[in-house]
Amino acid sequence: MTTDSSAWAVLPVTSLADLGALGEQIATNNGQSSEVTRVSHHGTGPDLLFKRYKEPLGDTDSDRLDELVAFGRSDAAAGRPSREVLLSRTSWPVARVTDDTSATVGCLIPMAPDAFRSDGGRYREIDTLARPDARLARNGGTPPTPEQRITACQSLVGIAVALEQRGLVYSDWNYANAFWNPADHSVYLIDMDGCAKGTGTDIHQPGWQDPRARTGTPADLSTDRYRVALLTARCLTGERNLAEMLHTLDDPPNGVPRKVAQLLLDMLWAENRETRPPSSALLAALRDGPELRFSVVRAELPERPPARRSDTAEPLKSVITKPVRSSASSRPEDPDQSFLDPRGAWAIGVLFAVIVIVVIVIGVAQGS
Question: Are 299 and 288 spatial neighbours (Cβ–Cβ below 8 Å)?
């Protein structure tokens, strides 16, 4: 795997015509792209992909993409540590691709290494780690040890630190964009061509919204800190449900270092989003560095959900967008179980009895 994008045999701005015939299509209609295909023309090799955008980029986004490409191709000493992390552990953009009208129609990106594929050939998404050990074992998998979870989280947060050091906002942290290698527990991040300096479009999947950000505002470094912490906490604890995960961090089990849990709580549940600790502090804690203290006032934790009969978690969106009810007023959420409510059964019985009595009365009256 190359760590120097200047070695790619393509220009920083490459025309679609120069790519020639495209190869195998490996993805369609995914996020902001209409297709992703292999590229093997002009010495680029089979490990480059053409990512075609659904709509051509405007001038501002084209300039932004050029800056990302230039950073990856630079051989300057400034920013080298961050650059080496991003080039070796992410699909950092290699070139901007234009059509015959000079409009930006896509970009060239490296293919993720095969080490992140499963035996079936598909990439292993990191959501494997965001599941309880019992469920992994039940599905025939080998649960990762706490140390292996920490190693994977170190790799993930290391990418976040490299981005934060350059002031770059990624925004779209989620399970599908991070691949996991169970051999060395490293992480590889894709869709890097959307990174922006300082602020960017708030791109996220359902369940990953920043609860302290106003709807419609751009994503910023604070947004990234929340989502990195959310993904890290889910992979570290194996718990997807937000409320359950927060309470797990508040009283961490063996294998989850307390100082890591406390930092994650600060990043996730600070009343003021601007006071969220940086990702570098989280990485230091994951590496067992000295405990760092931050002036963070946390909001009150949501009520812990009742014990579940299965480990299928309630979607995060439902925790944020609806009030948590007390256990005294809780009712079955499964509509298939609603008929078990004894009050409903009693009401149906009374109604049936009334109908029978009315029929009898009418029959008697007609007979007389």
Answer: no
What is the spatial distance between Cα 368 and Cα 364, in angstroms, rounded to a whole number?
A: 6
> Please, where are the H alpha helices in 238-278?
242-250, 258-269
pLDDT (tens digit per residue) in 166-224: 999 999 999 999 999 999 999 999 999 999 999 999 988 888 999 999 988 999 999 99
254 with 232: CB under 8 angstroms?
Answer: no
- Give CA–CA dist 269/265, Å, rounded: 6
Give the DSSP letter string of 134-191: HHHHHTT--PPPHHHHHHHHHHHHHHHHHHHHTTEE----SSTTEEEETTTTEEEE--
Give the mean model confidence (pLDDT) for residues 278-290: 93
Q: What is the pLDDT of residues 101-130, one digit of tens each?
A: 999 999 999 999 999 998 888 999 998 898
Nearest to 93 by CA among 104, 103, 102: 104
Q: What is the mean pLDDT of residues 30-36?
A: 83
Alpha carbon distance 212, 142 (integer Å): 37
Q: How far apart are the first and last CA of the chain?
A: 97
DSSP state of 9: S
Give the integer Cα–Cα distance in Å for 160 and 85. 10
d(CA 270, CA 9): 47
Closest to 363 measured CA to CA, from 66, 9, 355: 355
Measured distance CA(193)–CA(204) in Å, rounded:
15
For 286-310, b where at least 16 C-beta lie within 10 A, e where not — what string? Answer: beeeeebeeebebeebbeebeeeee
Token couple for 167: 């002031």
Between CA 88 and CA 97, with CA 91 as vertex, the angle to 5 degrees is 130
Instruction: Find how far residue 272's CA is from the centre of its chain.
Output: 22
Q: What is the mean pLDDT of residues 83-105?
A: 96
Distance CA 14, CA 8 (A): 12
Alpha-carbon Rg for the chain in angstroms: 26
Element (H, E) at 328: none
